[in-house]
Amino acid sequence: MSTKREPAIDLDHVFFAYDDAFVLQDVTATIEAGEFTALIGASGCGKSTLLSLMAGLRRPTVGELRVFGHPVEGPGHGRAMVFQNFALMPWKSAQANVEAGMRLDGGFDRATIRSRAVEYLDKVGLGGHGSLLPHQLSGGMQQRVGIARALAVEPDILLLDEPLAAIDAQNAELLREELRSLVRGDGRTVVLVTHNLDEALFLADRILLMGANPGRIVSDIAVAREETWTGTPEELILARQAQREELWTHLRDEVTRARDARQLVGAG
Amino acid sequence: MTRSTTADGRSGRTVEAPPPTADERLAAAQAALGRTRSHWWTRSEGVLLPTIGVLVVLVCWELYGRSGRIDPIQFSYPSEIWTAMRGLMSSGRLWTDLRVSSEEFALGFLVALVGVPLGLLFGVVRRLGLAVDPIVTALYSTPIVALTPLVVIWFGLGMSSKVAVIALIAVFPMMINTIEGVRTVDPDLVRAARSFGASPLQVVGTVVLPASLPFVIAGVRLAIGRAMIGLVVGEFLASTAGLGFSIRFYAENFRTAEYLGLTLLLMAVAVVLTSLLRFIERRIAPWLHTKRS
């Protein structure tokens, strides 16, 4: 990776427990401003919980989470989230859903809300579909509304919780490319939770691999990217293949461990 | 593809017909589509079949009545009922009864609407909801009509006793449905609103209330049927006017045609009101209607 930047998110020995069980244990990491980070790991390793902590929807049981140096007390300006199941209000049109995000965020006047909703719907390829209700849109289109809603508040930090997991494969592929061109290189800090290794490699600058039971960061890998690569294109391809293999080796171990742990619980 | 041949008139030889063009194939496919497209009858059967069903029953009932096999004390038939109702209309009695019952119903229902904000409160404030749950469930399950004599003792023979019975009977379905509506709100919607910095009050106003609205309307629909029973029972037991009072009066005087006519009128009012609410439900929650269909 390149030069050191301002830390956007600081996870300082964070623990989080549901009831009596620790879901996250001693998670420490720093995500730099403008960095695109992917959180990847086996099911139940606490990736989405960690994202909820970053969004301020939950508070750490122990430890501190800071955003641009300030402890996170709750959801706040400058952060926006995209949800796996879109989380669109079914009674509101696509445009009204985008407007609702800005309205709840506050700090936007009525005219800005209106014009920005149109602008961002246009950016995600939904210009002219603003009056449709979510049930009249396909899964891919609904997620585009979700992305427009998050981008319209122009957040410094964009949190993506498995945004392509509930979309059919072809539309997910399309949206993945669009997401890359929408958010990569615009200076925004992005944290993506995904199960998909190739998606993480395609989109992220950095991958944090999480282990389960309890959730913790087991590996931190800077993705070889063409923008920063100094070697030949062939070397880049080889480097990425090696990274994929390395990540998959780690991930396979974690998935197997998580599966065995579940079987033990089931047997118990 | 089958090969078609035609006889050449001049030479008498059999020649092969040219294969159909793309346009011809499209025209043939469209013609086939026209044949398979559902008939107007199939498309309108949702309206036609119930109408025919009702008409058949009415005609059979009328014919049976006119055959003289119905004892007018025990039962009646459509044309007799219509004549009796016209008599009630011309005497003005029907309008008085309708006015009295409508006022009681409207006032009682208006009071019962308090169940909606209460349900919202019990649904949103989880601990409060848990505390009142046994009481609300017990009262919802109680046949409130059985308490009508007590209500009459409290409120007297006037309008207020009927208003109270209707309110008591209608408040619980509305309250319970609203609580259920709040409890079934998609948690992701709440998370989404909160992630944009919505305050608890904003979450209720922006997400919880609109998301529960279909449940609230369903509760109102349920309450209408129950309130109608409350109205009739209340007027049966203690009143000097109203549809329930007249139904009882005509039943006791063996004027079965009037008695049945008024009962049918009540039925029609209930059907119209619940259909109206179904229509509203479809308008405010089209996504639910699409899922169901």
List the helices and strands and how they pair.
The complex is a heterodimer of chains A (about 270) and B (about 290).
Chain A lengths: L6 E12 L2 E12 L3 E6 L5 H9 L6 E6 L2 E2 L7 E4 L11 H12 L4 H14 L15 H14 L4 E5 L7 H15 L5 E6 L2 H7 L2 E6 L4 E7 L10 H35 L1
Parallel strand pairs in A: 3-8, 3-9, 6-7, 7-8
Antiparallel strand pairs in A: 1-2, 1-4, 4-5, 9-10
Helix pairs in contact in A: 2-3, 2-4, 3-4
Chain B lengths: L4 E3 L6 E3 L5 H15 L3 H27 L11 H14 L1 H20 L2 H10 L1 H16 L6 H8 L3 H25 L3 H9 L4 H38 L5 H10 L3 H29 L1 H7 L1
Antiparallel strand pairs in B: 1-2
Q: How would you describe what is shown here?
A:
The complex is a heterodimer of chains A (268) and B (293). Chain A has 268 residues and is an alpha/beta fold. Helix content of chain A is 40%, strand content 25%. Chain A has a domain at 7-78 and 155-267: Rossmann fold, CATH 3.40.50. Chain A has seven helices and ten strands. Chain A has a six-stranded mixed β-sheet with strand order 6-7-8-3-9-10, sandwiched between helices. The longest helix of chain A is centred in the last third of the chain and has 35 residues, at 233-267. Chain A is globular, with a radius of gyration of 19 Å. The model of chain A has no long low-confidence stretch (mean pLDDT 90). Chain B has 293 residues and is mainly α. Chain B has a domain at 92-292: Orthogonal Bundle (MetI-like fold), CATH 1.10.3720.10. In chain B, strand 1 and strand 2 (14-16) form a beta hairpin. Chain B is flat, with a radius of gyration of 30 Å. In chain B, 34% of the residues are buried. Classes of the chains: A alpha/beta (268), B mainly alpha (293). At the A-B interface, strand 6 and helix 2 of A face helix 9, helix 10 and helix 13 of B.
